[in-house]
Structures are given as structure tokens and as C-alpha cells.
Amino acid sequence: MRGSTRTVRAEGALRTITVDQESPERLRRVLEQALVFAGAAFAAVYTCAADGEVLQMVESVGAPGSLYGVRDSYPASGHSPAAQALRRGQPVWLGTKELHERAQSRRIPAYDFSLAALPVDDGGGCLLAVSERPGGFDPEDRACLQLIADAAFIPAPPSGPEPAPDGGELPPDAFSLAMDTGRVQAGEQILELFGLAPGEFDGRVETLLSLTVPEDLPALMSVVEADHMSIGDRELEFRVLQPAGPPRWLRLRGRLLSGGEGRPARLVGSVADASTLRSDVTDVARVQRLAAALATAVTVRDVGKAVVAALRRPLRADRIALAELESDRLVVTVLDPPEPEAWPELWRSEWRTEWPDAPVRAMPTLAAALREGRAQIWPAGSPLEPALAEVGPGGLAMLPLPAGNRMAGACLIGWDTPHDFDPDERALLTAAAGLAGQALMRARAFDAEHELVGMLQRQLLPRRLPRLPGAVAVARYLPSTAGLELGGDWYDVIPLPDNHVALVIGDVQGHSAGAATLMGQMRTALRAYAIEGHPPDVVVSHANRLLMDMETDLFATCCYVDVDMEEGSAWCVRAGHLPPVLRHPDGGTDIAEAEGGPPLGVVRQAVFPMSPLRLQRGTLIALTTDGLVESHEADIDQGMRSLADQLSAANPAHLGPIADALLGNAPRSDDIALLIMRYDGMALRPRRESWTVWRVPQAVGHARRFTRRTLRSWGVTENLDAALLVVSELVTNALVHTDGRVRLDITLVNDRLRLAVADASPRTPVKPTSIGWEATGGRGILLVEALSASWGTVPVSGGKQVWAELVLEDGAPAR
């Protein structure tokens, strides 16, 4: 019964529209009914050219046809659905599977759709329609499309005068643009709207474009560039800058005319003040604008903003809300206006986070409308529950947002003063609901997958940065919004012995799961090589050889900076990556002149030179990936200079706001990793001395005498005998059980004395579980454990270090 009612409603709407056969808007309004009654996302009418060899599009509505690979023209003798329907005189219905198999589909979008082609009633053209609904057009949809095809009479081209070509007289509000040269002839009224006197205009279209708001330029360029302009009428609103006050809205109506006989095509039309014509905007134009906005909306928030922009001002509504339906709750994603005071008390009581979470069970009228799946309109005074009545006391429209066989959400539109709903508004609301529901489902899938990708990416990066001696560091990672692939950018901060810190940032080629996996492997490898105690060039060289041995087609870039927190010096190694940017305490900035090597994984025997950096107290060092400094508008050099300028103007006392500001206006076409450290210097510098233990008979005695002299020079007198005994045992173990070089390191920080012996063996000393009276060895480690507060071993380059710490009762102060 519902389907037959829909067909009857379609017949009534078409009968009303087709009464005026001379109306220039008739064909467009007929096509709009395909969006309203047949659930189409796109509809167009084609007619045969004068030579009968080409089918040309004369009108279209809904989403851009390029989303579905639809062309502006097809060969009349070809195998396109439009040509086949016209030749056979019968409809052609193609589902998703058939469309994927047809060679004519130049581009298949990421979501599925179905296509229908029906000959129009006069036999001289064809109706083409696209549906994104699962299963395509159902029987009632097909019946409605047949009605629309029967009503889509194609008028003959107008025989009246057109705007004159260059050199002729034009009406005051008309223009004529030559598509090959960009020369434009404009009437005096148009020049006045642009703020130009007739004598000031040079006839170049670029002059007019320069006076428009930059954000509107892409839409205008799609009209004035021949490659992007379709045959037929087009309508566009844009803004022009004013000497004072806000920009002025203008409306362009144009038609692209074929030049013929070797003459260039021309765009002719008119431009008028949009504020005086806004009430005359057709519902079809509004649906087209909404469809175009939803076609580029990728997130749920984007969908909500597009719906608000398309409906609130044209309908003069006082408030509008778009919500996702999750189980039995409506989770509101966009409110306009956003202030809580503008919404019902129940909604405010359910306010949980940034947006309210309204229970459907508290609004039975809304719940019933959602179950029925049809747009509902309640005029002023309708008996509604308070949660809805307060949204629109002067009138309320509720749009269920269907997507296939389920409900994606709802859109509420409210008026404070009594509002009359005419048939055109009802048709607009119905068409908008269908488009928004499909877009909302796509956006929900995008948001879910993007969140999963972001979570996986964050798991591969450090959860938190370590506390650093004499420095503060912050890091940021910003995933790309251009796609759902995992990125390969990473950063790391690695504490090293002797108050050294390694700052690492890198980027693996590509955006894929393989790139993210390789990123995690490279970060782990660099951290492992650094902790082993290798110098910076050796760390990067080892990582390069590891990547070469992994036999992957990907490569990686990396910047590794080893900072000595005690001395304020650093060594930088670059492997095909951007250099660090230094901000000095006086506000001056430098892009470090650090010599670089090739990317990792390209050349096995590559050389990675080390470049020195000098850090004063208060110096900022910033490392970033190319996503922050490279874009379509600026190359890397310009981006690096811009980064240096922004650091120079920043307040170095607060690193978090600096990082947020740098990423605030960054392009999102690529992943971005950013690492900033402020070097403050160490308030207490440890005292250090080292001794190379030679393998001679008196080696242990020499080590004891060196330790005694060093501690006395530092003023250490307490626990001196215990320290000498620990040194004896550690040095003896190294000489007896290992080969190669042995080094003794002594460090004093406040009241803690650290004694460490490094050797060339990776084997860790083992503490015996039991020792008999007759045993001649094995007591050394037990003595070290008994005399020290703590002890242990750490791997170092080519071996290990065994250390022990003693707490001094009267330790000498560190420098």
C-alpha cells in the first residue's frame, strides 16, 4: 500500500510541475522527483545532438555524476546504458555486479551503486538515474522512474537572443566568457557588483576571480575552466570582497555553449545579487548543493555541518540537530546553535560530554517516526512531548535518515515562530533525508575505520615521554585525513647512560600496514642499538644494514640526535631526513647544517657522518617529518623557513602550546610527527673519572690506587674501604673471566657513588646459590651485593658493564 501511495504522490507532483510547459525550470523540477520518490542519488537527461551521433547531457540533479563515472556525452551507437536504452526503446537496469563488469564505467567509487537508463516519452532522449541503496531500484522505484521519464519532455533549444560575443552589446547583468582565451565581456551591473568601474576592467577573467573570497575559488574554477564545465545550465553562489564590511553573496547562472565550426566554446549567463534572489532559489538547487557537499564529507561531523549549512538558513529555521542512532539512543553529533541553553531541559539533563545523548524512549513520538521511516512535520501547537515541543514551538520537522534497510539517524529542525510548510519544502526535506542518511552511513564507516587506524598507529608510538635530566620534551603525532591507511612516521626519546639522551624521528615510505609494521621494527632497532652504547653514526649504520637484510621494497628516513645533557653538546646524524631546527634563547633560529647520508635501506655500505650541535641553556631543538613542512602550495625549503619563523615567535616556556600551534594549521595530506625538546642544563653535574685497566700483574692495585686518589680529591672519606673492596672484586672478575679491554668508571652524584667496570664479554656474572668452605672462588659478587646499595649489569657496545652503587654518609657535592 505504501508503494502505491508513493506512485500516486509522484504522479500528482509531476502533474503539477508539467502544467507550465514553457517554464525554464520544468525539466530540472521533473528530475528532482527522481531524488524524492525513486530514492535516486543522481539523475540526468540526455538528448541526441543535431547530427544524431552523440547523446549530450542537458540537465542533471543530485550528487556530482563524476562520483559514478557518468559522462557528459556518449556515442549514440555505443554500448553505454543510455545509448542502449534509446536504441531499444526499453529501460536498462544494471546492478552493482553488472556495472563492475562493464568497460564503460571509467571509475568505480568505494561504495556500491545501481544504474537505470530509460527512454523519454518523445523518443529523442534518455533518463539516467543512480541509486546507492542496497539492491538498487525496487519495483516501486522503477515505476516512479518510468513516470518521470514519461514527463521529461525535452524542449527545443531556445531561439531567442543570447548574450553577445566579445565586441557586441550585453544586457547590464549578462556576461560572455571565451573559454580558450579567458577574455570576458561583462555588463555594467556585474562590474558594479564586483566594485569596478567600466573603465577599470581589463577584460580578464582573472581580474574578477581575484576579487572573490579565496574559499570560493575552487567552485568558481570548476565553472570557468572548460574541462570541468558540463554542457547545460549551471547555477553557483559565491562571495566577493567589499572595501568595508562582510563579503557580498552573488549568484551566477550560466550555460556552456559549443562554438561549432572551429569556434571556441563560450560560457554565457548572468550574475545577480544573491540577497535579492535568495527567496527564489529552487529546491532542486538546494538539493544539488547538499549532494555536492555530502559527496566531499568524510566524517560524521562533516555530514552534520553540510546538512546544517544546506537547510537551516534556506528554511529560516531557529535550530537544527543531527544525531546518529545507536541502539536506543540518539547521539547528537551537530547542534546549531551549539549553546546548551538553546535546547530542551531534558537534553541538558542528559548532557554527558561535548554533545548531548538523548534517549529515544523519552520521546515516543520521535520513536514512532523513526520506526515508520518517513519524514514527519508538526505545525505549531501540535501535542508533542516536552523534549520535542521545546525544539520547535512554532513548527517541528523530523527527518529519519535511512540508509538501505536500516535507520542511520535523525535530523530535527525547529522554528520558534509559527511556520507554514509548503509542498516544495516537504519535497526538499524528503530528498535531503535520503541523501544525508546514505552519507551518514559512509561517514560512520570512515570514522570507525579511521579511529581503528589511529589506535593501531598510537600503539606503535611511545605512550609517554620519559623525564629527562636538564630538559623537557613534547611530541605530537597527527594522522592524515586523506585516507585510511596506516602511516610510517615515528618519534622516540631514549634515555642513555651518563646523562645522554637520544632524540629520534623518522618516516617509512608509503602509507600501508607494511609501512606501519616496518616503522615499529625500525623504532625498536634504533632504540636497541642506542641502549647498547653505540655512537650515533654506528646506531644509524646498524639500522641501515638491518633494513637492507629485511629484503623489503620500502625505505626509511631518519634523524638521530645524541644530546649530552651535562655539557650542552650534541651529535646529529641524518639519513635522508630533514635537519633539526634550533631556536636560541635570544629568539634567533637556525636550520642545522648537518651533513646527511642516504635514506635507510638504499645503500648497504652507506656512510652517515656526524655533525656537532652546540646547545645553550634555553635552546629549543625541533625535529619533524615532511608532512608538517611540505604541501601543494609550498616546497620543503619554504616550509622549513616557516617552521623556523614560527619557533622564533613562540614562547619557549611552554612547549605543549608551541607543538599544538605548529600542527594547528598543518596540511593533513600526510602524517605528521613532531618532537620538540628544550635544553635547560643540569643543576647538578655529576663528577666523573675513568681508568683503563691494563692486563698487568698489579692491575687491581693500580685500580685501587686510582680510586683512592679520585675519591680523596672529591673529598670522600666515608665508606672508602668498602668502595675499594668493590673495585677490587669487579676488576678482578673482569680480568679473570673476560678478554680484551677493561675500563673503570667512577661517578659521584650527591651522596651516591657509582662504580662500574666495562669489559668485552656479553656474559652476565652469575651470583652463586651456595658456596662451601673448601671453595676457592665465587664470593666476589656476594661481597659486591653485601657492600653496595644496589648493583647490576647493562649491555654496552661490544660487551657489558657491571656496576654497583654505594650511599655515602657524607658525600661531596657534585659540581
TrEMBL record:
<dbReference type="InterPro" id="IPR000700">
    <property type="entry name" value="PAS-assoc_C"/>
</dbReference>
<dbReference type="InterPro" id="IPR036457">
    <property type="entry name" value="PPM-type-like_dom_sf"/>
</dbReference>
<dbReference type="Pfam" id="PF13185">
    <property type="entry name" value="GAF_2"/>
</dbReference>
<dbReference type="InterPro" id="IPR001932">
    <property type="entry name" value="PPM-type_phosphatase-like_dom"/>
</dbReference>
<dbReference type="InterPro" id="IPR035965">
    <property type="entry name" value="PAS-like_dom_sf"/>
</dbReference>
<dbReference type="InterPro" id="IPR036890">
    <property type="entry name" value="HATPase_C_sf"/>
</dbReference>
<dbReference type="InterPro" id="IPR029016">
    <property type="entry name" value="GAF-like_dom_sf"/>
</dbReference>
<keyword id="KW-0378">Hydrolase</keyword>
<feature type="domain" description="PAC">
    <location>
        <begin position="234"/>
        <end position="286"/>
    </location>
</feature>
<dbReference type="Pfam" id="PF13581">
    <property type="entry name" value="HATPase_c_2"/>
</dbReference>
<protein>
    <submittedName>
        <fullName>SpoIIE family protein phosphatase</fullName>
    </submittedName>
</protein>
<dbReference type="Pfam" id="PF08447">
    <property type="entry name" value="PAS_3"/>
</dbReference>
<dbReference type="InterPro" id="IPR003594">
    <property type="entry name" value="HATPase_dom"/>
</dbReference>
<dbReference type="InterPro" id="IPR052016">
    <property type="entry name" value="Bact_Sigma-Reg"/>
</dbReference>
<dbReference type="InterPro" id="IPR000014">
    <property type="entry name" value="PAS"/>
</dbReference>
<dbReference type="InterPro" id="IPR013655">
    <property type="entry name" value="PAS_fold_3"/>
</dbReference>
<dbReference type="Pfam" id="PF07228">
    <property type="entry name" value="SpoIIE"/>
</dbReference>
<dbReference type="InterPro" id="IPR003018">
    <property type="entry name" value="GAF"/>
</dbReference>
